[in-house]
Amino acid sequence: MQQIVIPEFEEYIKQFGIHKYKIWSEQEESVIRNYYGVIPTSMLAEYLDRSIKAIQDKATMMGVSAAENQQKRSTPLDHTELQVD
Question: Which residues of the chain have pLDDT under 50?
Answer without folding.
Answer: 85
